[in-house]
Structures are given as C-alpha cells and as structure tokens.
Amino acid sequence: MLEMDKLKIEQSSKGIPPVGWALANTICLAAGNQNDFMDPGGIQGPDFTLYVQVVITLAESLLSYLDSIGWTEMGNQDPQEPMGNVQLETESTCALKKSYLDLLSPVCQQWHLTKLLAITKADANVQGDGALSVRNMKNLGKLELLDIAYFYSGIIRIYSILNPMVGSLPVLNMLAFTPGYIVAQWEALENLIFPGKGCPSLGIGSSFHASRISGSRNNGVFEKKQKQPSKDGGNKWTNVLHKITGKPQAGADYMNLIDGQQSEHAEEEVSDVWDVECLRHGPQRASKDMACLLHLFCATYSHLLLVLDDVEFYEKQVPFTLERQRRIASVLNTLVYNGLAHGAGQHNRPLMDSAIGCLHLMYERDCRHQFCPPVLWLSPGRNSRPPIAVAARSCEFMLASAKSDETVPSIGSVITATPHVYPFEERVQMFRELINMDKVSRKMAGEVTGPGSRAFEIVVRRSHIVEDGFRQLNSLGSKLKGSIHVSFVSECGLPEAGLDYGGLSKEFLTDISKTVFSPV
C-alpha cells in the first residue's frame, strides 16, 4: 500500500491509479470466470474474510485518491450544467471508466453477495459450536455482516463517481432484491441504535406508550382517539351544579389544570419516543460502523421503495412490518433533521444524501396512506425549532443563494429538506412571512411604490402572441410579481379598445398556452 501511495504522486489525473487496478485484479482473481447465471466458485473457505478486508482497504484508498483529484465533484455534477472543462475531461475518460467498471462487475452479481452471506451464517454456526476454542476461532477469521456493509458501501461510492450516467444502480439493484439482505441490514442497525431494547417505539415498561401508540390503530394506520363521553358529561353536570349553587369552580378549574398538565406531559413523552436519542446530534456523533450501515441501508431501501407497491407495503407488510416501518421513519427523521441543523460534515455527504432521499420516499408514502402518527414527523424539532421569522429569513437566504451546501449547519436546509418537521400552522405563518419579506424587498428596490403604483404595460399582437409575450415578459424578471396590464393589437394592426381589469390578462395567458402547447 505504501508503494501504491507513492505512485499516486506520479499518476495522471486522467487515469486509474495503481490502487484502482489492484482492486480490480483482486476482485477478478477472487471471482474467477463469472457470469450472470453460475457461481464460478473462485474463493474457498476462510479466504473470504481476507478477500473482503483487502477490498475494503483498497476501495477506501481509491476513494481517497478520487476525492483528491476532484473526480468526486465530477460524479456529482448536474448533467444540465453548461459544458465545461469538467465535462470535457469526463468525456475523454469515459471509455476508460467503462472498461474499469466492467472489471468490477462480479460484485454486482447476486451470487457474489449470496456467497458472502452464506459464509457469515456458517461462521455464526461455527461460533455457536462449543467444541472450538477461542484460539481456533481467532485463527479461523470469521466474516461478519458489518464487513459486507463496508465492502458494498465502498463499491457504491466508486460506482457513483466513475459512472455518473447510471451511478450505483447495478449495485443497488442487486442489494435491494437479494432475499433477506435488507432485513438483515436493519436488524444489525437496530442492535446499534437501540441496544438492549426489544421494542423502543413503545417505550419499555410504559403502559401509557403502549395504549397511546398501539391502542388506536386500524390495520396499522393511526387514528385519533375519540373523546370519552363519561368524562365530558361529568364536567357538564358539574358546571350546571356550580351555576345553580353559585359556588366557585375552583375545584373544577384545578382538576382541569391538572388534566391539561398531564396531557401536555404525556404528549412530550410520546414525542420523545420518536426522537431517537443516539441521533440527536446527527451523524457527527454516530460511530463509524453505524454510519456505514445507515448509508448502505438508506441507499438500498430508497431504491427498493421506488418499486414497492402499496399492497406489499401495507397488506403483505414486506420486507418490514408497519411497526418496523415506523421505527425506520423515526430513525431517518431524527438523523436528517439533526444532520442538517448541526452540520453533517463533508465526509458524511453520501450518508446524508441517501438518508434524505429515503426519508422523502417514506414521508410521501405516509402522506398518500398514513402509517405513522403525526407526532413522529414533528418530534425531532419539537424543542429546537427556531422562531418563524428567523426560519423564514433563513429559508429566503438559502433560496436566493445560487448553490447551497447541505453539509453546513443551516435552518434553511432544514426547511427545504424536512418541512414536515414544522406543523402546518407554522408553515402557513412562514409562507406569509416570506410574502411580507418579498414585498419589503421589492419596495426597497423601487418595484413597488404604494397601493396605486403604476402597472407594467405590455402590448401583444394577435398574430405574434408567442413572440411578443415571450420577449416582453422575459425582460421583466422579478417584476412579474407586480401588476401587469395587457393590451392587444388586432391582425389589422389596430389597437383593440378596452381596459385590462384582469380579463385581458387571463385571455392573454389562455391564448398563449393554447398556442404553445397545442399541436399544429
């Protein structure tokens, strides 16, 4: 490895470094002459552990090199950006990248992952055999599920960088549709996130959590509890009795105060259940093992959610039960909110990108067919949400920026990526605050002078409605938010009579839409 690091200095940025070829050779030699339908049987016995560890080490070194020469930014570049030196360099090395990825193709085959999983199960069975001593176990070298996670996490990142058009889809397809693997990933994550807890979402030893969360479900969908008529009826007769006797209602007020405090305290406890404690600082304080498992799970599960229909998700409940789906949603929600609020760091960028994508897919599915309680989505920001005015200004600043960096702590990033953390009422107030801020900024720019400010006049010829409309509206820019008066010129070249009180503007927009979008 030291010799390879020395060769990196002399290596051109347009080629694959020696450590990359070492990685490809290791995979090819270990896999043998593979194809899509047969297991070549290249590796045997405990050598699997050494093979996985070598690939992990080489992949980390290759990723470090690709990041140092700027290929990471090339892989993340938006295809719609203007042509530049970065894209030209990518085109010149496209053939090299493709041929290199062909050498890594054995790891994209299902037999490869299946064999690794079989070795982990065999090691687990051997570990349970009391006939083997501890020394023999150490010499044997067992392969664990975490090693496989590090293995494929590095492969996914390599494919994302070297294959910008397709990305890591070949790897994710295999991981998502290998039977039982994604379930094994989540079980390993649960052991790290909820150590020693059988059912964290219900609150260990709390009858309130069990009745509040699981007591009011219908096919796994949360419903609001109905008010108890006996309690309401008792309060009603108590109030009538107090009015007849003329006695003060101090006792009733005191009981109502106690009930209100208990209800508020209970709501806070339920909120804490869905706010995962070990992720309240984002990925910064998460262990390396947890971050690796989270990255691989989010990337794999978000890929699976794209094709998982509602029958499988809600009725058959595969690959997870709805109870586990809620637990997954709470983990992702807490991770993303705190990662954006506290800053995740550039090294956690792949984890945050995959977690945000997976969270959005789960929230969209919950909006379409609810399976999570509303308090779950609000829990991470319950005690740390900034004031509405501050949040609105941060969001406005971020939207005005040409490019945002989600690795930097930003309230604007939280609002744009996880708006569901704010209650609907606060989002409405935030929207109104943004409108007021926009009005103030336009007044300062001289675009709005008062209630009777002059409207912008545009003249459109009936025979050239698209050309005139595009030319005049495109030049207004932000002034499109102001008042616009439209006047037409007939096909004979004469101005049409009439004042625009809204009808002519509507006619203009309708006619230009028909002309542009209707086929000739």
TrEMBL record:
Coiled coil: none annotated. Keywords: Transferase, Ubl conjugation pathway. This is HECT-type E3 ubiquitin transferase. GO terms for molecular function: ubiquitin protein ligase activity. InterPro entries: E3A/B/C-like, HECT_dom, Hect_E3_ubiquitin_ligase. It catalyses: S-ubiquitinyl-[E2 ubiquitin-conjugating enzyme]-L-cysteine + [acceptor protein]-L-lysine = [E2 ubiquitin-conjugating enzyme]-L-cysteine + N(6)-ubiquitinyl-[acceptor protein]-L-lysine. Its EC number is 2.3.2.26. PANTHER family: UBIQUITIN-PROTEIN LIGASE E3C (PTHR45700). The keyword Transferase applies. It comes from Rhizophora mucronata (Asiatic mangrove). It comes from the Eukaryota. One of its GO terms (biological process) is ubiquitin-dependent protein catabolic process. The keyword Translocase does not apply. It is an enzyme of class 2 (transferase). Residues 480-520 form the HECT domain.
